[in-house]
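Case study 2.
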Amino acid sequence: MGRRHLYAYGLQKLGVTVKSRGRTCRRLLALPCILQRESQIALEDDESNLVFHVNDFAEVAAIIRPSRRRRPFSATERALRSERLAAVRGRRWGAPKHAF
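Prediction:
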């Protein structure tokens, strides 16, 4: 899978950045909803920026399959996971030399 980045492009439009030479880019360019294409082909930067209307997000999302970032842990979840990790470390390598 290539690099895919989805971003806002004004109030009613979205943009997506994909590799120019990939299958994903060819499939997106075949869609009638793509309004604008900007290519940035250089020696190290081989990508295309495609713009489409917000209403066509479902069509584009079916091709790029965007994923959400993992949400950060809450303070209680972090404390619980730290305790578990400390217990595992204690069993593996003996008691820790200093307390955290």
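The two ends are 40 Å apart (CA to CA).
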